Amino acid sequence: MAKSKFEYVRNFETDDTCLRNCYVVVRLDGRNFHKFAEQHNFAKPNDNRALGLMSRSARSVMEELEDIVIAYGQSDEFSFVFKRTSNWFKRRASKLMTHVASQFSSSYVFYWKEFFGEQPLLYPPGFDGRVVLYPSNRNLKDYLSWRQADCHINNLYNTVFWTLVQNGGLTTTQAEDRLKGTLAADKNEILFSEFDINYNKESLLHRKGTALIWEKRDETVTKRVKLPNEEEKEVHVTRTRRSVHAHHCDIIGDQFWEEHPDILEDDNC
Fold first, then answer.
1. 16, 17, 154, 173: least buried by Cβ within 10 Å?
2. Separation CA 128–CA 202 (nearest Å)
3. CA distance to 7, 18, 42, 72, 257, per residue, from 92 (Å)
4. Nearest to 172 by CA among 184, 181, 183, 164
């Protein structure tokens, strides 16, 4: 940058370097997505096209920023966890958040047709973001557990609510009144006794949300090779490739973390 008398204005910039040895979590939330869902006729209580688009956009972010070790999403939100030793953008919170938000938003628009076909995108979606630091593995796991517990609470309510409206003939106001003061057991009982729906058999995608992680998996590709006699032959080649994969499972218990021990770093790093 060229020197000039105006360079002093850089002194007004705030230092927002994230504390070292902490996981950096960037959480995005859809801005005014209730209206966005209504305008684009999202299915209730869950629209698999919209959820698929959210996951595809999150995968795009992870492929761009490989220091993200896990991302978890549900409804209109996604959390991205940078490994605690990451030094991307010199750990500046504003850089991390804006890069994640811009990559996610542009991917949402870019992949829209892949999930919604010819249904037009009526206006650009918006996502707000925040950055939170977690110093220990327990803190991070508790954060992700909180987000998955939130997924369960919201999805159970929405499942019962829209079942009462769509199958039970209630208005939205009547359904809301019916569910006031009910506990999880009450909601499960309404679904089972009145509509023969076992909530525990509902889609794991809807009940558990989506966890995206890096995994190494073998993949087989077919190649054409030229033999010494100049003939060509198809051969199958197996190679190990690291890529992002989705899991719809419980991440509150220990099993997920025991099966994927490479996600977390040593607390003594």
1. 173
2. 30
3. 21, 6, 36, 22, 28
4. 164
